Amino acid sequence: MDKVNQSRWYAQELISHVKNLNPRCHSKISILSGIIWILITGAQWSSLPKNEFPPKSTCYYWYRKLSENMNFMILFQSIVENKSKSGVNNNKESYIDASFVESKSSKNKCGYGWKGKGSNIVLLLNQNSEPISFLLESAQPHEIRHIEKILDQLKEEQIPEKIVGYTAYDSDKHDRILATKFCVELIAPHRKNRVNLTQDRRKLRRLKRRYKIEQFFAHLQNFRRIVTRYEKIPQNFLNFLYLASACIIVKRSFNLLNKAA
After folding, report:
1. 67 by DSSP, 3-state: which?
2. Exposed/middle/buried for 252, CB within 10 Å: 0-12, 13-18, 19+?
3. CB neighbours of 26 closer than 8 A, spacing ≥ 6?
4. Domain boundaries in the chain?
5. How does strand 131-138 pair with strand 116-125?
6. N or C terminus of the chain with fewer C-beta within 10 Å?
7. Residue 1 near residue 9, CB atoms below 8 Å
């Protein structure tokens, strides 16, 4: 499947969840498929194929309008809520990790990490390999400082019982904060130079399932607009991130239905 047909397929699956998209001359699916084509290819808006999609000004206008009204976040939340209503989601055990994104022309939420100038995408994933919440922060502070921020975005019923992280999340201080404030247990392996061992080795078996979050970050790499951050405004980059996650969830559920059939 080429990029044009792939973007149209995603648009047909997501158009029912998109609100406040009322164009006059063009169809909703064609505009949304043009936005998704930019997301998949990572190209500039001027490179939008003229024969396949509406003009670049039309697609960019509706992208900015949907971004300002937070419609992409609402789209992502509606798909996640539909999954939870059907009894598919299970947030008892979640996984957290961060991925570095190189930034080209941005100052907001952008800092110098060990990989260079960029931002960190902090992701909280549930047990069914589906994202619960995203957070875009500067690459300069340590990842463990973002756990409280990403949990503050969630509702009470969305807060997991256990969060599994890797060695960088080993901190007794944050273990106590999460236990008292959110009633969440943080499970992370100890560092090599750790003296006081506090983790139960039986609970560390959950680390075998941490491949799910690494796998989801690998799926995000297929959407080239996520690989490098060109947007100056952090919310615009987050909107592309929400849209890419919605596409991944829809495609995964479609593949599961085909396997069941």
Report:
1. helix
2. middle
3. 54, 58
4. 3-69, 90-260
5. antiparallel
6. C
7. yes
